[in-house]
Amino acid sequence: MTVPIEPPHLEPHEVVAYIERTLPAPKRARVEDHLSQCEECTAELAAVVRLRPRPAERALWIPIGVAAAAVVAGLLVARPLLHRPAPAGDVERQAQAAPHLEIVAPAAGGRVTGAVTLVWRAAPGASVYRVTVSRADGDSVWAGSTTDTALAIPANVALARSAPYYWYVDALLADGRAVSTGVHEFTTGP
Amino acid sequence: MPDKLPADVARLLAAADPRECDEAWGAFVRAYTDLLLRVARSLGGGQDAVMDRYAFVLEQLRQEGCRRLRAYERPGAGAFGLWLVVVARRLCLDHYRQRYGRARAPDGREDQPLDPRKARRRLADLIGDQVDVAGVPAPDTGSPDQVLARSERSRAVAAALEGLPPSDRLLLRLRFVEELPAREIAALMTFPTVFHVYRRLDAVLRTLRAVLEQAGVEDAEP
Q1: Does residue B1 register a pLDDT over 70?
Q2: Pair A96, A177: CB distance under 8 Å
Q3: Is residue B89 within 8 Å of B53, Cβ to Cβ?
Q4: Alpha-carbon distance A56 to nearest alpha carbon in chain B (angstroms)
Q5: Which of A28, B72, B103, B142 could form a disulfide bond with A23, CB atoms 3.0-4.6 angstroms apart?
Q6: For B202-218, b where at least 16 C-beta lie within 10 A, e where not — what string?
Q7: What confidence score (pLDDT) does residue A161 get?
């Protein structure tokens, strides 16, 4: 009788590195390949994700307004990090999500007078675009969705004069993947 | 040395004499008992079973001069708490296997469907105080035709899954087998939002459905 030879299970540090997304691309691909075939390791991964220590849980005690501001600020700070030389699955996912999303107007760091219309280039395969505008302190000012490649900030959204704002667009592709412009800044007129 | 080794653990691993080691071990146990109990509870059973596992994990971690904890000392080892969860859970499974043996099928593969009597014994030990195990009915396997159709359908599904990229297979497994929340899957598999997880699931399921229809599988039940 032939007993099937199973690949060795993941080492604890590999499970940790997969969860923390610190594996280099080829290694992450190998781990993902193993996980896709190994019930025991996938069950372990899911259990560890549920059990892991979560220091962020303490944030639940922060008043909701402060927490919301912190989340948006965190997004603004972390967003450039998302564009670092991508490790592992990020590389594959970005390669699959080939279309690149570029802003058109306002230009990065540009000054806008009057009504603000945000414009970007179309991403092939995009089904909808989500636009988010935030203040420098991280508070979200406005967010909207469109299937077009331009969106005006509504007149009832009060923008301060001579103030910096940050905006980004996420294009959601038909197959569930996404591309983003990354965060860009514009300043309102006096 | 990993750069995230907590002070309690570093002190324990560096302890030179037995008294210092005892003190450092006490501090380690105080610091990580909540975490270790969470892991022990995650495998089910009553309070006695949980405490047995917890005691087993502590015993194993301390054995041979904390040999298992020393395995953490490697470059890029990641967060210690997360690593400890993985190790403690594996020790809990070792404890379980020591008690009940491995679930081994006749062909030598593990974790296959158990002998019904063994399965009932495990069930009785694990949840016997909450459920009347004697009242659990035997599974109804259906007529031979249904069994055959079910088996063919299972083979077709397995073949369709085999044709998917590993990341999509993992996505399906995490969502539908492990029932991990979409936000956890998004964080694990580098999806920007949960919305993207659902969209990807939808795309993968549509692909699977098309493949199964081509293979002549139309319905979930034969």
Answers
A1: no
A2: yes
A3: no
A4: 14
A5: A28
A6: ebbeeebeebbeeeebe
A7: 87
Residues of A in contact with B79 (CB under 8 A): 16, 20, 53
A78: Cβ–Cβ under 8 A, 6 or more apart, which residues? none
| pLDDT-based confidence at residue A56 (cuts at 50, 70, 90) | very low
| Rounded-to-integer distance, Cα A48 and Cα A148, Å | 42
- Taking the Cβ of residue A8 and every Cβ of chain B, the question of whether any pair is shorter than 8 Å is answered with no
**Placement of tokens 């009940």 in the chain:** B100
Q: What is the pLDDT of residues B109-133, one digit of tens each?
A: 444 445 566 666 666 666 555 556 5
- Give start and end residues of each alpha helix (H) in B71-180: 80-100, 116-127, 144-162, 166-172
Q: Judge: B81–A4 Cβ closer than 8 Å, yes or no.
A: no
Contacting residues for A117 by C-beta, under 8 A, at least 6 apart: A105, A150, A151, A152, A153
B31 reaches A (C-beta below 8 A): no
The secondary structure of A106-127, three-state, reads: CCCCEEECCCCEEEECCCCCEE
Between residues 63 and 122 of chain A, which touch chain B (CB distance below 8 Å)?
89-90, 92-93
Q: Check if the beta carbon of residue A19 is closer than 8 Å to that of residue A42.
A: no
Instruction: Judge if the upstream peptide bond of residue A106 is cis by omega within 30 degrees of 0.
Output: yes
